[in-house]
Amino acid sequence: xxxxxxxxxxxxxxxxxxxxxxxSGFTFSSYAMSWFRQAPGKEREFVATITNTGSADYAxxxxxxxxxxxxxxxxxxxxxxxxxxxxxxxxxxxxGKATWGQGTRVTVSS
Length: 110
Hints:
Elements: E1 2-6, E2 9-11, E3 17-24, E4 33-38, E5 45-50, E6 56-58, E7 66-71, E8 76-81, E9 90-96, E10 99-100, E11 104-108
Parallel strand pairs: 2-11
Antiparallel strand pairs: 1-3, 3-8, 4-5, 4-9, 5-6, 7-8, 9-10, 9-11
């Protein structure tokens, strides 16, 4: 099982980024996928999840700004992040089938 995140970077407040999580080694379409994040000096926290059938749920602090989606044909999950704030700065991790990706860093700063 392997999860590889990409798409992180530096963005100004109010900007957007789309993160991708490419999965391999398991039947992607059968599993829920989630995004978590860990800011410097803080514990890892839940961001969003999507079931294998496409139902999504979000943490209150990202609801309305972030959108989780998946493409089962590409074995990839996405996190579209809009209206980014400095407090969204963190390493973002993908999780599926009890496995973590290596993370991708997002920095929101002017």
